[in-house]
Amino acid sequence: NPQVYVETPLHPEKLTVWCALWAGGIIGPYFFKHYEGHKVTVNGDRYRAMITNFFIPELNNHDVQKLWFQQDGATCHTARTPIDLLKDTFGDHLISRFAPVN
């Protein structure tokens, strides 16, 4: 019927979700989204905010003295401010680009 049409988006909705996996369980999930619920691109500032406001407070609820933190080389993960924060938090127990493993 030429009078009936169905609108479909050109691209599907996308959402970035972060979580941490370890022997003691899962921390997360954390959904990167705008305050109005819209999707956002994860950049160094948003990643650092997630670490500061979500991840580190969650870590404080667990015994993580011997925990190692590993991440991939995504641009937001290797930006200067998140890397500096992670180095301060995990010291030599950080496995990431620009963070030497000892």
From TrEMBL:
Coiled coil: none annotated. The keyword Acyltransferase does not apply. The chain crosses the membrane at residues 15-32. Keywords: Membrane, Transmembrane, Transmembrane helix. The keyword Membrane applies. GO terms for molecular function: nucleic acid binding. PANTHER family: HTH PSQ-TYPE DOMAIN-CONTAINING PROTEIN (PTHR47326:SF1), TRANSPOSABLE ELEMENT TC3 TRANSPOSASE-LIKE PROTEIN (PTHR47326). This is DUF4817 domain-containing protein. It comes from Trichonephila clavipes.
